[in-house]
């Protein structure tokens, strides 16, 4: 009996949660795309020109078809902004790249995933990161206290 988690199990779990989250938040869009119809104008992701990939995940069509990039970078998976799973993915990426700033975290995250209004989510997560809070903390201002009377009154230096 093997008690270790394999790489395939991790990939399968991530795929399961991606599919689950997309169906939870974008079920109407997925059904519309499966029927080969156009998305409603009120859809949050209409401007991203989504399509269903071969893996049945919502992906962005994008303008990078001719770019020399991997498939995940050309067609990132769309993730909802208000989802704990999405937050966990951003936190994982933020920690993986060494608690870098908003732009670096967002750039690394966009290699595989696209979050509508993702910059706002990344800013929120970095603001709540304890390590980043400690690193970016400003020193407190010290208030000077009054000197005691013995230190400011004149006296003879060497009394004999």
Could you characterize what this model shows?
The chain has seven helices and four strands, in the order αββαβααβααα. The chain is mainly alpha-helical. The strands form two sheets. It has a two-stranded antiparallel ribbon. α3 packs across α4. The protein is elongated and about 100 Å long. The relative contact order is 0.09. The model has no long low-confidence stretch (mean pLDDT 91).
Features:
single chain, 160 residues, mainly alpha, two-stranded antiparallel ribbon, two-stranded parallel sheet, 4 strands, elongated
Write the layout of secondary structure elements.
Layout: H1 7-34, E1 50-52, E2 58-60, H2 71-74, E3 77-78, H3 84-96, H4 102-109, E4 113-114, H5 118-128, H6 130-135, H7 149-152
Helix pairs in contact: 3-4, 3-5, 4-5
Summarize the structure.
The protein has 160 residues and is mainly alpha-helical. 46% of the residues lie in helices and 6% in strands.
Cα radius of gyration in angstroms: 27 Å
Largest beta sheet: what is the strand line-up? 1-2
Taken in chain order, the helices and strands follow as HEEHEHHEHHH
Helix content: 40-55%
- End-to-end CA span: 90 Å
Protein name: Integrase catalytic domain-containing protein
Organism: Trichonephila clavata (Joro spider)
Pfam families: Integrase_H2C2 (PF17921)
